[in-house]
């Protein structure tokens, strides 16, 4: 069973889209195993986005992700990384397929509403950055 880290970014929180976004993953049939409404510290933001250090969008990205609360989550299911990335859509909203979260609700790459892990390695790293293992709730999903 695969797990992934998803985070509604400050723009999604400010626009009141937490429920809409969570609902899409629930309706897909994926399993929520952890969630946290929180502020991201500068240090956590730097660690989370370490792979982008040096890129032109890195400083504004850090400013943005620390600008207000986020809704951090862990979801689980078969192929959950590929499935959630398909539901989220491409990073640039102009390229996101109709019906995806970013196509439906986002305009700008810098304000693209949600982060989703792009590989099993990054999922494990990001889950461990934002959550302690004891915060992940183990339960049977019957349907
Ligand atoms: P995210 O999935 O959180 O990963 C890195 C973020 O940087 C990305 O979503 C965008 O919000 C932001 N970003 C801004 N410009 C770019 C870019 N040119 N390429 C990739 N990500 C970008």
TrEMBL record:
Entry function: Major role in the synthesis of nucleoside triphosphates other than ATP. The ATP gamma phosphate is transferred to the NDP beta phosphate via a ping-pong mechanism, using a phosphorylated active-site intermediate. (Microbial infection) Catalyzes the phosphorylation of dZDP to dZTP, when the bacterium is infected by a phage that produces the substrate for the synthesis of dZTP (2- amino-2'-deoxyadenosine 5'-triphosphate), which is then used by the phage as a DNA polymerase substrate.
E.C. no: 2.7.4.6
Family listed: Belongs to the NDK family.
GO cellular component: cytoplasm
Subcellular location: Cytoplasm
Record text on subunit structure and interactions: Homotetramer.
Major site of localization recorded for this protein: cytoplasm
UniProt binding sites for ATP: 9, 57, 85, 91, 102, 112
NCBIfam families recorded: PRK00668.1
Biological processes annotated in GO: CTP biosynthetic process; GTP biosynthetic process; UTP biosynthetic process
Spans traversing the lipid bilayer: none
Catalyzed reactions per annotation: dZDP + ATP = dZTP + ADP; a 2'-deoxyribonucleoside 5'-diphosphate + ATP = a 2'-deoxyribonucleoside 5'-triphosphate + ADP; a ribonucleoside 5'-diphosphate + ATP = a ribonucleoside 5'-triphosphate + ADP
Classification via CDD domains: NDPk_I
Cofactor(s) required, per the database record: Mg(2+)
UniProt-annotated catalytic positions: 115
UniProt domain Nucleoside diphosphate kinase-like: residue ranges: 1-138
Swiss-Prot/TrEMBL keywords: ATP-binding, Cytoplasm, Kinase, Magnesium, Metal-binding, Nucleotide metabolism, Nucleotide-binding, Phosphoprotein, Transferase
UniProt KW Nucleotide-binding keyword: yes
Molecular function, one GO term: ATP binding
Protein name (record): Nucleoside diphosphate kinase
Top-level lineage group: Bacteria
InterPro entries cross-referenced by the UniProt entry: NDK-like_dom (IPR034907), NDK-like_dom_sf (IPR036850), Nucleoside_diP_kinase (IPR001564), Nucleoside_diP_kinase_AS (IPR023005)
Enzyme class: transferase
